[in-house]
Amino acid sequence: MSLQAIKFHSSPEVSLSILNQLQVPYQSKYLDVDSIAPIPEFTQFSGYDAIKGMYTRGAPAIMLVGCFSIVVELNRVINGVDSKKFGYDITSITQFKIRLLQRIDELISSRPTAVNLTNGCNEIKKIINSFQNEDLKQLYKKILDFSENLYKEDYQSNIDIGNHGLKYIIDILSKENYNGPFSVMTICNTGSLATSGHGTALGIIRHLNQFLSKDKSKYNFYFDHAYPCETRPYNQGSRLTAYELQYENIPFTLITDNMASFLIDNLNRKKNHTNQNILSTLSSNSPIRFIIVGSDRIVQNGDLANKIGTFQLSLIAKQYNEIKFIGAAPTTTIDYSTKSGEDIKIEERPKDELTMVLGAKMNGNVFATDSTTGDVVLERVRMAPLNIQVWNPSFDVTPHANIDCIVTEKDYLVKDDAGNFHL
Ligand code: MRU
Questions:
Q1: Contact between 188 and 307 (Cβ < 8 Å)
Q2: Are both 103 and 220 inside the same structural domain?
Q3: pLDDT tens-digit readout, 139-154
């Protein structure tokens, strides 16, 4: 059973709850979502709150939570909750649609870089705009069906991405008659917690472990080890990816983002390097052959926005002929309307994500818990001087020139002879 970021039920009651990822890996608690966006003194916790506050994160997961939050609000409105408090006029379908579209636009504004949320919401907007009937129950049913399908399709996409990523890696290594073990590196969290389940980049790593580990590989090569980067400043790598890899029993070693080039140089240039002492403290010495990352937006020419730190990994990969840089994402991450990465809006996040760290209080070598609630005690600690300037772009753009392969649920895609992707 893989970790579950989103729980949605349409019967007997409609309910949406999301894993509070601010508390992972310390504890697993779910929060109920009751609306699209906050309305003071009326809503408790909206899809907007969940996404903006990073309770749910990861491009596909925020799309799904966003769409399901629309279903939840609509269900409440058609089932007698005070619709006026939400600002709806249920006596006029035209006015109702205008207000619903406004609410959805507010939801979309929660996180600007990941395009999946916009893509999912735009499909719902199309349903709303083309709805000519007066019966709100029918509108609800259409949006419910769309959102439930989106969830199922996302899960299937992840499995297909895993298969296509695996195939690309087998094709590359077979072509060069590679012999022996290999390792991979990744950044951020792209697993079950960032999607409906399984994951994109992490889904490929999961596939590698399942089908290409030493005891299961049918080839002369096998998957040996994963290196997740910590992923400063929000630490999705250390908090979430390390948690998922441990949960799945996948061999891995956590590194900080600024260790990537030193690690790769030591592993991949074994013959010349002078740091044998460093290698002897690693549990695996196999070279890194693939850097596999997820994506928040892939534009027409194949440029890819992903977690800050992805671009520098692509530059490192370029220094080593043998390292292939792979971007993995479902087609809901493709923005066909944007030509190149220069036009992607990059989200800047609060400064305190850099200057403060949120962690669990320890009691000996276990997490300390509150004696009444049983909750793990979380502490925010400042790690920088007060009153300093801080820059916190949450994503960067990797140009397609640095990307060897884009893996989607449809296939794996490499560049043509002129260096262009055809998405
Ligand atoms: O800020 P986050 O945690 O939402 O960023 C997530 C990432 O950058 C992921 O790599 C990306 O969304 C792909 S998730 C399958």
A1: yes
A2: no
A3: 999 999 999 999 999 9
What is the domain extent for residue 375?
352-382
- The ipTM estimated for the assembled molecules is 0.98
- Average pLDDT (196-215) is 97
Q: What is the pLDDT of residues 52-98, one digit of tens each?
A: 999 999 999 999 999 999 999 999 999 987 888 999 999 999 999 99
Q: What is the pLDDT of residue 1?
A: 63
Are 216 and 337 contained in the same domain?
yes
| Alpha-carbon span 328 to 408, nearest angstrom | 6
Percent of the chain past pLDDT 90, that is, above it, reads: 92
My answer on whether 206 and 318 are in the same domain is: yes
Set 257, 296, 303, 404: catalytic member: 296
In a domain, 216, yes or no: yes
Q: How many CB atoms neighbour CB 401 within 10 A?
A: 13
Centroid of ligand 1 to alpha carbon of 361 (angstroms): 26
Q: Indicate whether 216 and 363 sit together in one domain.
A: no
Tokens 């000996």 belong to: 364
399: domain CATH number is: 3.40.50.10470
Position 322 pLDDT exceeds 80? yes
What is the per-residue pLDDT across 28-54, written as a single tens digit (0 to 9) for each?
A: 999 999 999 999 989 999 999 999 999
296 among known catalytic residues: yes
Q: Work out which ligand 1 atom sits closest to the CA atom of 59.
A: 12
CA-nearest residue for atom 10, ligand 1, is: 294
In-domain check, residue 90: yes
CA 252 to chain centre: 19
What CA–CA distances, in Å, run from 370 to 31, 337, 366? 19, 50, 13
Q: Which residues line ligand 1 (CB under 6 A)?
A: 57-60, 114, 188, 190, 194-195, 200, 236, 294-296, 306-307, 394
Contact indicator for 270, 263 with CB cutoff of 8 Å: no
The answer to whether residues 205 and 307 belong to one domain is yes
- The tally of domains found in the chain comes to 3
Q: What CA–CA distance (Å, rounded) separates 125 from 152?
A: 20
Question: Stretch 1-15: mean pLDDT, rounded?
Answer: 92
Per-residue pLDDT at 107: 98
Same domain, 116 and 168: no
Atom index in ligand 1 nearest the CA of residue 240 equals 3
In order of 23, 93, 297, the CA distances from 38 in angstroms are: 22, 23, 26
Give the domain CATH number at 87.
1.20.120.420
pLDDT of residue 272: 58
Identify whether residues 244 and 297 lie together within a single domain: yes
Same domain, 33 and 122: yes
